[in-house]
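Supplementary Methods S3. Complex input for the 2-hydroxyethylsulfonic acid-bound model.
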Amino acid sequence: MRTGVAVVTGATSGIGEATATRLAADGFDVVIGGRREERLRAVAEAIGARWHVLDVTDPASVDRFCDAVEECRVLVNNAGGALGLDRIAQADEGEWRAMFEVNVLGTLRMTKRLLPLLEASGDGHVVNVGSIAGYEPYIGGAGYNAAKFAERALTKVLRLEVLGRPVRVSEIDPGLVQTEFSTVRFHGDESRAAAVYEGLTPLSAMDVAECIGFVVSRPPHVNIDTLVVLARDQAGATTVHRR
Ligand code: NDP
Ligand code: 8X3
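Predicted complex, serialized as structure tokens:
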């Protein structure tokens, strides 16, 4: 398998941390980013990765992070998430803006900055972590849905624009994954977050990381464009089986 430098954004928890762990175990030279410095350092030490503080919503932070990366073969744009579950009538514009900043513009900024290095590697690979929410709108989801629909559009357009160049573009679109996602969405309300996964078996962060590990370990001529991954207990964004 070709390895090289893999950059993973949002690697202080959840899918990003698991992906960094999986790619490091597969022999990649992993560089991780996120805002919580202590957690970043702990994850990096545990898996033997390099780390730099990164806020993908801040262009200066993206510049500092990318200036420290000299080579890049794989970029996993994972940093993201949802804020709130309010209906449109009660929507908080600040939360919508924040969701667009991290999921859409954050992915754009990192991709723009690292694309030259990815191409120069001879087999660059951009992997964007989207969501089932980017296919299926649900009540209260409009801000997050819109951001993940937009992120999917960005991924598709990038695939078209780099055609003929040595860069692969993939999206991984999971359903319910038990991470800090719902705690962040519900502003730290742990019991509301736990209720999302009650009575069902959600995906784990490592389930998704293993999919990403598979996607980036295909031979260079194979581009997995889209991978939608749901728990067996979930058949649609809001169609779940609870025991
Ligand atoms: P977590 O909340 O556990 O992880 C989110 C990660 O993103 C954290 O490491 C966080 O680190 C980082 N992050 C958030 N904002 C920024 C920022 N501005 N700059 C850099 N890093 C940032 O959730 P998940 O692991 O579940 O989420 C990862 C991705 O998976 C997201 O894109 C999410 O939308 C997507 N997803 C999640 C699903 C789920 O059910 N959990 C399902 C489908 C998709 P820090 O706070 O330290 O910056
Ligand atoms: C996270 C999955 O269904 O909560 O992207 O939007 S969902």
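The longest strand covers residues 167-174. The chain has one domain: 5-229.
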